Amino acid sequence: MPRATRVSRLTGLLASVLLLAATAVACGSSDSGDGSGSSAAGGSGSSASAGAFPVTIAHKYGSTTIKSEPKRIVTVGLTDQDAVLALGKVPVGTTEWLGGYKGAIGPWAQDKLGGAAAPTVLKDTGTGPQVEKIAALRPDLILAVYSGLTKAQYESLSKFAPVVAQPGQYNDYGVPWQRQTEEIGQALGKADQAKTLVAGVEARFAAAGKAHPEFAGASAVMATPYEGTFVYGSEDPRSRLLSDLGFSLPKDLDKVIGDQFGANISKERFDLLDQDVDVWIVPDTTTAVAKLHADKVYADLNVVKQGREVFIKETSDYGNAVSLSTVLSIPYVLDRLVPQLAAAVDGKASTKVAQPAA
After folding, report:
1. Which of 76, 117, 120, 245 is most open to solvent, judged by the fewest CB atoms within 10 Å of its CB?
2. What is the pTM (predicted TM-score) of this model?
């Protein structure tokens, strides 16, 4: 699935869900969770904090109350699994987005599995979450924090388990990694642990900013050559990587893309690309780059002439970690992205922006 696309909307699975709801084990409602069941995939994990439940979490479609510690967690949110793993739990089901990883668990998170089996991987075929397969996993909590879940999908899934949907104050797929981690921490009864994890990663950003004061005030944009030229908005996690490092985003960026996580732009708006640094997520770092530079309008921008571009291979572990931008993948990203940004932002064409060794 291209990184610029997201799962499409579910049009009507309510009837099948009603049937499943009658037979599913460990059922609940969107306002309750009885924490029943266990998992060979390590669903027990470390225990929740004392007094953590019941907990109520507000989201785009209202609020969901989780009455007791969940044991069988399914992540519908495309990156939610990393926060669950970071908090000491292993989901029984994850939703595949990037592909290529057993259990949809990237190498930056593999050690969090411990000795547990990898989660069952669910897929989206263009009609939304696989409701029947999710029900078969007997979840007592469904997480859809980093998602574009529709109200119909939310209501369908809520027939057999509590669902934490995406926060309403952000664009779909626009929740900050900090908020994602903390909400999932609340849902798992580990709010304090989640805050500690967030603080640790924020310290990594702060250290990078201190080491590279040239980032502060410099402008940057994240883009990909998907169906032309696609730029990511300020609420997309990829763009947040840049702003969290101190870079400013193009001032007209969100005005151009609207309330989406990103959008294609015409050549008339290539001014959005003429920043102190352009970070490109590309299919490959050879032919794709050559194709970009063959565009005379783009090649005439100062960002190109002065060698201020960073290229990240889309399907590499590095590229996948950038696209996920989670509490677990971000440290992996920073080890690779910060040196590239430092080489690019100096504005010297002679400074080579090298690819990470691994």
Report:
1. 117
2. 0.86
